[in-house]
Design brief:
single chain; mainly beta; five-stranded mixed sheet; four-stranded mixed sheet; 18 strands; globular
Amino acid sequence: MKRYQLLGSLLLIPALALATVTLTGCTKPTETGKEKDKDGQASGKEKEKDKDGGGKDNTVALEAKTDGVIKGKVVYDGTPPKMPFIDAMKEHADKNVCLEGADTEKHKQEWIVGGGNGVANVVVWLEAPEGKHFNVTKDLRDERVKAQPTIDQPHCAFVPHVVAMYTGSKKEPSGQKLLVKNSSEVSHNTKIEGSKLDGNAGYNANIAPGKTEEVDVKYQAKPLQIACDKHTWMNASLVTFDQPYFAVTDKDGGFEIHNVPVGAKLTVRMWHESFGDNVRGTAKAGATQEFKAGDNSLEMKIK
């Protein structure tokens, strides 16, 4: 099994103590004290706590002003790996369309590293203090729902390679839907597979060129997998959240999280596809910390 190391180096304004954390991609975390079942999900009491996407039944609302902004970047620590070219495109019937794509669309997309060694497609999110949950106002909820998550197929790759969405909890769904686009000149058979136990029975549809589809997705602990049966190398991940404090890094590793609760001890976590599918169980990406009103600068390293 491949092993991956995560170095969380957090730089805030004003400056806070630096934290360094090592993460092993597919192992069971001991830092959280949670037991995991064979599928990497919480078991026993932890399953009961998490069954509605965050254990709100056993927590109290976090009372704090929400006027903080996190402006961060995730960078690769060292020399980034080179992603192989997808040779299957050259032999496919749709090769003329496939080979018109951007360079990142024609190579494996696991590690897209841009300017300043910034890593794309890293999911970053906040966790409320132990025993509490985020008090999401109607305005914040509505604002997040309006920003519809979208995944496109402009040639023969999914763009973006990782998408996150605010589904809300099982008891309180947000109503947000995933927009699946096909802006290419060829049809795509788009398949989204999730946990049937969580209400994600699966989506499988042929999407004609220029067409779009809206897909209803429920909260689940693991990422949903997205694929195209017609172009078998195509794949992407969809990560769901029951709260709105998350972001996915852009092509240069940058991200922003708005309306951050200030003066509260929050935990920053992050996930990359190289970590496997145990999203909620990953070790802390940095020390628990408090954010201030206004802009906060945050940098994390990964390899």
